[in-house]
Amino acid sequence: MASLFSRLKKGLSRSRESLAQLIPSKNTENQIQINWEDVEDGLIMADCGPTLSAKLIVKAKQNKRNPIAGLKQAMMATFPDLKAVQEANRPPFVLLVIGVNGTGKTTTIGKLATMYRQQGQSVLIGAGDTFRAAAVDQLAVWAERAGADIVRQHEGADPAAVAFDTVQRGIARNYDVVIIDTAGRVQTDKGLMEELAKVRRVISRSLEGSPHEVWHVVDGGTGHNAIVQVDKFREVAGTTGLIITKLDGSAKGGIVIQLSDTYGLPIRYIGVGESLEDLMPFDAEAFVSSLLPESNGAEI
Ligand SMILES: Nc1nc2c(ncn2[C@@H]2O[C@H](COP(=O)(O)OP(=O)(O)O)[C@@H](O)[C@H]2O)c(=O)[nH]1
Ligand SMILES: [Mg+2]
Fold this sequence. Notes:
Blueprint: H1 2-11, H2 13-18, E1 25-26, E2 32-33, H3 36-45, H4 50-61, H5 67-76, E3 93-98, H6 105-118, E4 123-126, H7 133-146, E5 149-151, H8 159-172, E6 177-180, H9 190-206, E7 213-219, H10 225-237, E8 241-245, H11 254-263, E9 267-271, E10 279-281, H12 284-291
Parallel strand pairs: 3-6, 3-7, 4-5, 4-6, 7-8, 8-9
Antiparallel strand pairs: 1-2, 9-10
Helix pairs in contact: 3-4, 4-5, 6-7, 8-9, 10-11
Bound molecules: guanosine-5'-diphosphate (GDP) and magnesium ion.
């Protein structure tokens, strides 16, 4: 976990640097000062968005003695209390994974499957991205690495039929966990959105109370567009949680706070790399601390 945390810290280092203005400095008259406008710019550059950034500044200023602690508190307040993942009344626990193409859905499913297997649970994955044969092959590789089983059909098969088969097999063969992959559809494509709604409907018909969770995988580097995507998908798929990927790369991090502030959805996991173990359960405290510069101990 320590190395995952350092990947996150490294990924967010640019945002942290742009918030370095928070470290109190002295002006020529030897007065301690903070340039709040620069801090606000730093927040916007870190992907917090103008509205949230302004709000955070107002709150942070209330802590006159320690602006870093003030901002940290303000950021922490945007995260809802983490509620437990919904459990299945009877197995399997069914998880639907949604999100735009290339955000990391398939990779994240591989990581989640690995995690559940390590917890001793049996995992069945449904290859619901039937759009391209290569997508199914990629998922099959991840399933094998994770020690999970897969349900697949031919290219172009109805994703809802794959989802139905997967849940049915999950029930019949007593799997603990069923994870359904979906095509990475563009949210402006109405036909594809309808397909996603159908996948969801069919899952709930095949097992009452399911899908227990619907996790939207968001690429942490997408900026404001991520806000729009989450809204669109939520409407059709009933999103219950978010996974933000690629926080080890060029992502600036603030989008995580913005998404939480806008929708109040729990952030379940974050992705910090391309291999099986590069998934961290989201920890608001650790995340916010990685985004902020170290306090130099100087309190005003
Ligand atoms: N650096 C980094 N790359 C990731 C992460 N998650 C996924 N990727 C990469 O993003 C690309 C798209 O991933 P994929 O799972 O195929 O996305 P999908 O289209 O949503 O299924 C692949 O090259 C992955 O290796 C992550 O957390 N960090
Ligand atoms: Mg995929």
